Structure formats: structure tokens, C-alpha cells
TrEMBL record:
Protein name: ABC transporter permease subunit
Lineage: Bacteria, Bacillati, Bacillota, Clostridia, Eubacteriales
Pfam families: BPD_transp_1
Membrane-protein topology: Multi-pass membrane protein
InterPro entries associated with the record: BP-dep_ABC_trans_perm, MetI-like, MetI-like_sf
Membrane spanning stretches: 7-31, 75-96, 108-130, 136-156, 191-208, 242-263
Length: 278
């Protein structure tokens, strides 16, 4: 029986390794294109291993295109949205999880309803709201749009986690003399840290990759985000430069990958942080 388990584990690991390799094919494909000096992506002579190896495409993206400016814009929008959305979602999620007040269930149902519709359906209404306030072609307006979308997601995600934290932990803190502020600061938030970090990363990824609102409410290349900038690299060219586009695409993904690898240990610890010893 022990040998059967070992054999099954080996085949299971091989299966997941194969899945990982299959998922890496598009990335390796883009890497091969980005290191090729010839724009022959659609030709029959293209190969995964570049025949004319060069880093010129990366140099062109970094120094000949406004990539670093787009990076700065994306960083401003992403971190502003993450900070404000988390600041709204965490106390709201805790209140909806722990407090029982009139209208609680209708509020939760309304939030689900608002999040059920595709955000693109509200684009015209959002434009009519932001235009009189001068928030079109303005980062503040774009941040408000992102917060309105992701604060609801963060609230629901965090509420589900707060529901898993046993009430016995908070009751024990109250018995020890902790007031509500100390209870939340010293007990609840440390237990909820994995969920807060995961929620923040998911909000960051959404804003980092968001395209529709970025190109609709922002004009001018100096205000483009990375997603809008990637589109601009291809939209104005009659002969599209796929090596430069591939190099830019890979560079766009690097910051998110770094953040993901830094916080990946929290991805699996979220549901075990609030356990109670029997």
C-alpha cells in the first residue's frame, strides 16, 4: 500500500509538472519573439529559438518608448487604489461579519447585485458623473472608478475570511480587558493579515492589467498606464513590431511576479490563521 501511494504521488507530480510546462509555452513563445531582431512572427521561418539573438527590443522599450512613464502611472493608480480600497473594505467587512444591524442583509445583497453586472455597462453613466467634476482624463477619476469596483470585491472577500475567525478568540480578548480598538488592532487584524495581503494583491493585479477604463477615460500618451501603453505600441503601426510588443509585455509582468513571489506564503495560510486550539 505504501508503494502504491508513492507511485501515485510520483505520477501526480509528473502530471502537475506537465501542466506547468504547458502553461509556460506562451511565455517562452513571447520570450523567443522578444529576443529576435527580425519581425517574422507570422512567417514560416519563425522559431522559438531566435536566429538573430538581440536585447535591442528591450532597450527600445525602456529608452525609446515612454515605458518608464507608463510604469510610474500604473504604480500611482495601483497603490492608490489598493490603499484606499483596503482601508474601506476591511472595516466594512468586519462590521458586516460581526455586527447584526437592521438592513445588513439587504446591503450584502445590493453589493452582490452591483458586482454582478459587467463594469463596462456603467461606462456611460460613470462618464456623465465624472465629466461635470472635471475628473475625465484625470487619475483621481480613474482611481474612484477602480475603488468603486474593487472595494466591493475586497469587502466580500474579507467578510468571508472574518466569518472563519472564531468568536471565542475575541471573547477571550474582552475577558482580558481589551477594548474594541485593541481587539481589532492586536487580535483580529494580525489573524486577518494573510487575507488582507491576498486581497490587496488581487486588487493590484486587476488595476495593473485593467485596459477598458484606462483607454476610455485617459487620453494622451503621457498619462497612459502600462496596459494602455501596450495597446498604443501596436495601434498606431501599419507594420506591427511584434518583438518590441513582446518585450514590453514581459516587462509589464515582472513587477507583479515579484510581488506575487514575495507574498506567496500567505496564499495558503489564510484559512489556518484563525484556528482555535481544542
Amino acid at each position: 500500500m505504501n508503494y502504491r501511494k508513492k507511485i501515485s504521488l510520483v505520477f501526480l507530480n509528473l502530471f502537475f509538472i506537465l501542466i506547468c510546462l504547458l502553461c509556460l509555452i506562451p511565455i517562452l513563445y513571447a520570450l523567443g519573439v522578444s529576443l529576435n531582431s527580425r519581425n517574422d512572427l507570422l512567417s514560416s521561418s519563425f522559431s522559438f529559438i531566435p536566429k538573430d539573438f538581440t536585447f535591442q527590443n528591450y532597450r527600445a522599450v525602456l529608452f525609446e518608448k515612454p515605458f518608464l512613464l507608463w510604469l510610474k502611472n500604473s504604480l500611482i493608480l495601483s497603490f492608490s487604489t489598493v490603499v484606499i480600497a483596503i482601508a474601506v473594505a476591511v472595516p466594512g467587512a468586519y462590521a458586516l461579519s460581526r455586527k447584526r444591524f437592521p438592513g445588513r442583509k439587504p446591503i450584502l445583497n445590493l453589493l452582490i447585485l452591483l458586482n454582478a453586472f459587467p463594469s463596462i455597462l456603467s461606462m456611460f453613466a460613470v462618464y456623465r458623473i465624472l465629466k461635470p467634476m472635471g475628473l475625465v482624463n484625470n487619475f483621481t477619476g480613474l482611481v474612484l472608478i477602480y475603488i468603486g469596483t474593487m472595494a466591493i470585491f475586497g469587502l466580500w472577500n474579507m467578510k468571508g475570511y472574518f466569518d472563519t475567525i472564531p468568536l471565542e478568540i475575541e471573547e477571550a480578548g474582552k475577558i482580558d480587558g481589551a477594548d474594541d480598538f485593541r481587539l481589532i488592532r492586536d487580535i483580529v487584524l494580525p489573524l486577518a493579515r494573510p487575507s488582507i495581503i491576498v486581497t490587496a494583491v488581487m486588487i493590484l493585479i486587476y488595476v495593473w492589467n485593467e485596459y477598458i477604463f484606462a483607454v476610455t477615460f485617459i487620453t494622451g500618451s503621457e498619462k497612459y498606464t502600462l496596459a494602455a501603453g501596450l495597446y498604443a505600441l501596436q495601434a498606431t503601426d501599419y507594420t506591427r513590431n511584434w518583438p518590441i510588443f513582446s518585450a514590453a509585455s514581459l516587462l509589464v509582468s515582472i513587477p507583479v511576479l515579484i510581488i506575487f513571489f514575495c507574498v506567496q506564503r500567505y496564499m495558503t495560510s489564510g484559512l489556518t490563521a484563525g484556528g482555535v486550539k481544542g
